[in-house]
Design a protein that fits this description.
about 65% helix; globular; mainly alpha
Length: about 130
Amino acid sequence: MATELTGTTALDQCLNNLRDIYFKMMEPPGLRKYFYDEVPCPEAEIERDRVLLLAETLADVLETGLMTTRRIPDTESVGDWRDYCLFIRRHSPVVRDLLVEHPAWWPELRQLEEDECPALEPSSAPSPDDINA
């Protein structure tokens, strides 16, 4: 019972942090696309800094949720949280780039099964078709 309560409390904190990130995505509007719609990080310095800071914060929250659900399986949310993390990895080149640039910062998020999400490579890397063209 105590373990279940601890897990629920920890996961509730992750969800509160995630909601805070959602609100930050609306200030200014238009930042959500970098995390849900396969849009690469912008090049304009101010917007780039905002997106990178949000991506780092989001990765921190995802990492904490993965650790919580792994260590305290009584939360019964391990599958849901893992699915959400996989979704973000699949749809956010910004988050994928951070995982490549800083592999030790978010080890749980980085270690999600490779067959469940794209290989981690910088999004700016040319594809094999581009190289052979």
